[in-house]
Amino acid sequence: MTKALTGVRILDFTHVQSGPTCTQLLAWFGADVIKVERPGVGDITRGQLQDIPNVDSLYFTMLNHNKRSITLDTKNPKGKEVLTELIKKCDVLVENFGPGVLDRMGFPWEKIQQINPKMIVASIKGFGPGPYEDCKVYENVAQCTGGAASTTGFRDGLPLVTGAQIGDSGTGLHLALGIVTALYQRTHSGKGQRVTAAMQDGVLNLARVKLRDQQRLAHGPLKEYSQYGEGIPFGDAVPRAGNDSGGGQPGRIVKCKGWETDPNAYLYFITQAPVWEKICDVIGEPGWKTHPDYAKPPARLSRLNEIFARIEQWTMTKTKFEAMEILNKDDIPCGPILSMKEIIEDQSLRATGTLVEVDHPTRGKYISVGNPIKLSDSPSEVERSPLLGEHTDEVLRQVLGFSDHQVAEIHKSGALDPPQKQAAE
């Protein structure tokens, strides 16, 4: 069975998380991703957060499945020749360098276009054009500048970043969509183009409901926010809303049986209006179905603290899974707070390929995420990440068609090896 992106070749100049997320997704769909790394060093995440000495970290292995690795010194004249040939043979070049790095390497967009007019050059930057475009950006910086942190957390507390990597991985996913869109357009135009995704833009896209609420504020208070029911006035910016639901239906996290010792014995519970009567029956408050203080959503807004306290009395008598089973029978929306331990042990996630076991030659077996996007005619297989420079000679011979003599010359030039330090005289 042919994979969706079979025949597409990616020249991968990415590192750390945002870029590798993008290129790994393309590799899962069948693209031939050639990861270009610095000789002797490679992607910096190979050595970051190592849990086993002298072995590629999980940080690296879980972001670089299904890729080939070559080492190349792009400052070396022979290295530049090899890179030129790779540009001729590849469809897409992906990079997440700082601003101007590709230009300083001697390969600005104009030159790449001359070498290969069909080449798509895809880039992740921290910011788009503007006052901050030269600033360095990391995950938490992107969450803060994209508006997510200011709206995350509780009203009387500090802004918070989320554990989901919406800045790095989120932008990588945005860029992957841009790349496949550009590839599709190329089938009609025959031309390559530049694709860019700024981390600030990606975070803002994922936080769009808060941009929605900022504009709603001009027309009155945000009634679905808990502070409205508590009589606390709104300021001129969207506040932090704790665990309130963002969809207009009141929702909160409530304790379940065992919360005293289990930090994840909690359930997210939404008091959705269409199932309000069923909620009343489940929690043992049938009188609330007709009582004027509780029967209609507007009346309930000033009583949410009381309502969720009563709901919590009920959930504290059940485990989060027992509560979910009972509530789902009545279509009451809820969800248990799942720990990473519970997720990694979930056999259903392994059955669907959302979690996969990967065998690495030096690390051994480990669990990783698989492709979150499932195609019926293009199943994804997760292959281990490459060792540093593992496929250098293979790519030189098979992709570029170099002879043994040419490969030997390139090796001799030092273009594939760490730069030699000059001995002190």
TrEMBL record:
Record field: catalytic activity: formyl-CoA + oxalate = oxalyl-CoA + formate
Pfam families named among the record's database cross-references: CoA_transf_3
Gene Ontology biological process terms from the UniProt entry: oxalate catabolic process
Enzyme Commission number: 2.8.3.16
UniProt pathway annotation: Metabolic intermediate degradation; oxalate degradation; CO(2) and formate from oxalate: step 1/2
Enzyme class: transferase
Protein name: Formyl-CoA:oxalate CoA-transferase
Gene name as annotated: frc
